[in-house]
Task: structure prediction
Amino acid sequence: MDAILFDWDGTLVDSLGAFHRANARVMDAFGLPFDEVVYRRHYVPDWRLMYLRLGIPGDRLDEANELWHATFASGTDVVAFEGAEAALRALRDDGVLLGVVTAGDRSIVLPQMERTGLAELLPVRVFGDDLDVHKPDPAPLRLALRMVRLEERPDAAAYLGDAPTDMLMAAAAGSHPIGITSVLGDPDELRAAGAEEVAPSVASWVATHLATRQPS
Result:
């Protein structure tokens, strides 16, 4: 594997709690029901589409977004999952190109990358506001593949994510979809969306990958 690219929220960092609290405040302000079941049912990476599906009126999306940002603030409670940093360092030291392809906006995710210490390990970056389309559209991942010069060899890259849309994007781009279980995707859901492998964490998958890969 020449390059390994990652989703951010729920894959490398534990941020779903912060997202849930911010979304719950927005839904409460609009008088709409919201819990984990509702979130899973309506989740899509494009927040505008998700809010429409949750019942936010189209002409009040910007208002909802402002409230979400005010609640989420700087995301200081977002932390890297245990073993994630060491796993990325092990991959980098093994000569693998690393990057992140996320639906999160640059202004939100980049400070989190710096704060968690993962920024230096993820030089290739595609954020949600870099393109007009979102997962499961393969365009964000294809942009990252161009950055690592693998646009003609997408199968030389893997993409790790925790949602079915991550797996659909990776499969559509021709890369290897690797599922990381979370509230957004259990093993069956991830495999149904195309995951070739499923692991409980990035650290677990990387340890197995490095132990079983063929020597170059």
Notes: The chain has ten helices and eight strands.
